[in-house]
Write a structure and sequence with these properties.
about 150 residues, alpha+beta, 5-stranded antiparallel β-sheet
C-alpha cells in the first residue's frame, strides 16, 4: 500500500534508555555520522540489510543531509536524514519521505527500512538495543487553525 499523501511520515530510531555507556557512545557516533551529511557508507550498509529489492537498488541521495532516492525532486521518491539537532534528543530520524507521481513509497518499503536500520545500527553498536518506528501526522496539523477547523479531512 502506498503511503498516505495526506500525512507526513518519519522513521525514528532510538537506543534503549538503559543502554550501557559504551553502547551510548557508539550510538552517538552513529548519529553524528548520519546527521553530518557524510553518510554514504551508512546508506550502503543499510541497503545491505534490506530484504526488498526496491530498497536495495535505491541510489544514494546526493544532498547535504544524504539519504535514499533519486536526485530529481519531481520524478524520484526520496527519504533524507534529519540534520544535526541542537538539543538533547538522541533519536536518529529519516524524514522528508517524499513520493512523486512516478515513484511512490509503500508502507512495506518503510517497514523494510526500519528493520534494516535497526539491524545495521545494532551491528555498529555491537548490541541489540536499537528500536524504530514510523511516526505520521496529518499535514493539516501544520495549519494554525487546525483545531478550530470542523471540516472533515
Amino acid at each position: 500500500m502506498n503511503i498516505l499523501n495526506t500525512h507526513i511520515h518519519e522513521l525514528i530510531f532510538n537506543i534503549d534508555k538503559d543502554a550501557p555507556s559504551e553502547y551510548m557512545k557508539r550510538w552517538i557516533d552513529l548519529k553524528t555520522k548520519c546527521e553530518n551529511g557524510e553518510n554514504k557508507h551508512i546508506i550502503e550498509q543499510l541497503k545491505g540489510y534490506c530484504n526488498l529489492n526496491t530498497n536495495r537498488v535505491l541510489p544514494y541521495l546526493n544532498r547535504y543531509e544524504g539519504g535514499l532516492g533519486g536526485n530529481d525532486n519531481l520524478v524520484n521518491k526520496q527519504i533524507r536524514f534529519k540534520g544535526f539537532q541542537c538539543d538533547d534528543n538522541n533519536d536518529i530520524i529519516l524524514h522528508e519521505i517524499i513520493s512523486t507521481d512516478n515513484e511512490k513509497w509503500t508502507y512495506d518499503e518503510l517497514d523494510d527500512l526500519i528493520r534494516a536500520f535497526i539491524k545495521m545500527a545494532n551491528f555498529n553498536i555491537q548490541a541489540e538495543c536499537v528500536n524504530g518506528r514510523i511516526v505520521m501526522f496529518n499535514k493539516n496539523m501544520l495549519d494554525d487553525n487546525y483545531l478550530e477547523n470542523d471540516n472533515e479531512f
